Amino acid sequence: VRERFGVEVECHPSSPSLWRALYAAFRRKLWLSGFFALLESVFRVAQALLLKFFLQAMLVGDMARCYSFAGALVAACFFQAAIHHQLFFLTMTGGWNIRIGLSGVLHWKLLRIQTSALQADTAMDCSNLVANHVQRFDTFMPFMHFIWTAWIDLVMVTGLLVAFVGWTPTFVGITCVLACVIVMIQFAKRFASRRAITAAITDERLKSTSEIIAAILSVKVYCWEDAFAERIAAIRQREHASIFKRQLM
Hints:
This protein is mainly α. Helices cover 87% and strands 0% of the residues. It contains ten helices and no strands. Helix 3 packs parallel to helix 7 (146-165). The chain starts with a helix and ends with a helix. The mean pLDDT is 84.
């Protein structure tokens, strides 16, 4: 990651992008996992189609077609399971690698700068970056490709519904699905805003804790332990309240 970001700085000195550096570092895993995500979508939709043909063959009593479609359905289920595990293996290890790479870059940078430059960005701030922000790649990567494969699934399912049940039922069903998507997007925005509020409170708590630890001798000399403990407890209480509101959502 550090080498790719160095190349990014050389190529775009005015506006280097960490996202472009991460893409260059993990391009192979991203494209391969995207291919697996597309294959999984195809096999998932194919199972519904094969199940329809299997039930039709059972209704007419054609045992040869029943066995054929049953075998194809079993094969589709097997390939979907195998592809699903490969997909999650690539995306989960990719998330781990990105987290470890960014954490390593952060520590590499800390070892290269002077101690006086750390007054603005304390060790607690760096710990918060690693603990809260970089960890998000672990949860984002396994579900990253579903953002675009969901629309492919929607197009394929819409086509099948129009072909088998007609336009009116399809329109009603797709409208309900899109309405649910809109509601979920609104909830996601509220989750993001609440997380930003919680992260700001967490930064305040860590900064105050770091300042108290740095000046602990003065705190003990003037017997300020209780006052600062109450201050940290009040900030922690606000943080708990913010987390509780997010859980209620």
